[in-house]
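Input (structure):
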């Protein structure tokens, strides 16, 4: 199963959810791989992965498709240990930006899909963190994945962006990846006491959008977890926000 966290909107929780869902998946005994496709490398930092040589990051995986190599390394050889049992990661790299145009002009859009198809032999769960844009890398991820999870912050612009996003996803399904499903919309940074988020979520549900029934509350614990570079499951397993992430995980796996 390959799940991609995607929303063109920035700061909605893609990296937070990718890291935490991958950590939960690993803790359940699934051999899990997290891939950071964002030049900001937030999920790589979140998991406290030390700086890696460019060739050993996700940039290296893509770069070998446009440069001469005696031997093409399979995806699992780019994966590093995270220190957590069953959890490996292909680290992100700012160098993705340097090679994006060339990859695009040389039509390498299916290379991630091919690499990950091989990697599913080693990893039964793959989570992909994407940049806040529909660019070469997020498109590669949506082509490679079975499932897209769309985090939203519950503000008004979230809905406008969502319609546009779903149109893009429909096109990707038609043109490249008929197996892609929108597995769920994840309401993040939810404030149960505020009126607007509830109205927004309710209207999405009424319109038939697949909103996951557990919402992730806005909580300082999430920021703390980034700061100490530890997934919530390991930092504060009993906290309400950890419990809701686990509930989302179970909902997806049921
Ligand atoms: N539920 C939450 N409660 C409080 N803070 C949160 C929550 N979810 C995410 N944040 C904070 O919001 C910020 C953005 O989160 P995150 O980096 O996961 O979003 P993103 O969608 O990956 O952003 P980008 O588009 O820049 O990649 C981070 O500082 C994170 O700590
Ligand atoms: Mg991010």
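Output (sequence):
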């Amino acid at each position: 199963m390959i799940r991609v966290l995607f929303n063109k909107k920035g700061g909605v929780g893609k990296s937070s959810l990718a890291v935490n869902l991958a950590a939960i998946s690993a803790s359940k005994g699934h051999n899990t791989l997290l891939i950071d496709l964002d030049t900001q490398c937030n999920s790589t930092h979140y998991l406290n992965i030390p700086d890696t040589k460019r060739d050993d990051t996700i940039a290296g995986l893509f770069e070998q498709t446009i440069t001469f190599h005696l031997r093409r390394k399979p995806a699992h050889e780019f994966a590093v240990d995270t220190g957590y049992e069953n959890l490996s990661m292909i680290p992100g790299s700012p160098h993705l930006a340097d090679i994006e145009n060339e990859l695009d002009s040389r039509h390498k859009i299916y290379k991630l899909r091919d690499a990950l198809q091989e990697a599913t032999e080693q990893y039964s769960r793959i989570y992909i963190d994407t940049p806040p844009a529909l660019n070469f890398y997020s498109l590669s991820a949506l082509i490679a994945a079975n499932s897209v999870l769309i985090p939203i912050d519950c503000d008004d612009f979230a809905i406008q962006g969502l319609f546009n996003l779903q149109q893009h996803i429909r096109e990707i399904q038609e043109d490249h990846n008929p197996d892609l499903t929108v597995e769920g919309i994840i309401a993040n940074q939810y404030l149960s006491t505020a009126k607007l988020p509830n109205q927004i979520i309710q209207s999405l549900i009424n319109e038939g959008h697949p909103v996951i029934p557990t919402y992730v509350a806005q909580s300082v614990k999430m920021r703390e977890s980034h700061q100490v570079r530890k997934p919530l499951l390991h930092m504060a397993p009993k906290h309400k926000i950890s419990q809701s992430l686990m509930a989302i995980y179970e909902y997806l796996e049921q």
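Notes: The mean pLDDT is 96. The radius of gyration is 17 Å.
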